[in-house]
Amino acid sequence: MKLTEQEITNALCVNMAQRKQLHPSQVEVVLMWDEDLGFSAEVFAEGRNQILIEANIYEAIMQYLSQQQIRVFRDQIQLDLEDEIVAYIHE
Q: What domain of life (predicted)?
């Protein structure tokens, strides 16, 4: 299974909205990749911004898939940089 950058962004929006008790449309996410730091995301909500590390992205993906009745563990998820940032879910 492969998640697109938009699906990863949606997962992070839903995850952060639940944490901050907001509607997902009130959360904006920008995915980033750096050669030294790896994958991260910048989240904008309630007039503030927050940087999320790769572990937070994995957590959001696991929660997102869980809501779709798909159970995955951290070691089954692989983030990759193609034309966009994608996540491969291995069985």
A: Bacteria
pLDDT tens-digit series, residues 2-32: 999 999 999 999 999 998 889 888 999 999 9
The reported pTM is 0.90
What is the rounded CA–CA span in Å between residue 11 and residue 72?
14
Least Cα distance to 28 among 43, 15, 17 occurs for 43
In the chain, domain spans = 2-89
Helix (H, G, I), strand (E, B) or coil at 53: strand
Q: What is the pLDDT of residues 29-76, one digit of tens each?
A: 999 999 888 999 999 988 899 999 999 999 999 999 998 898 999 999
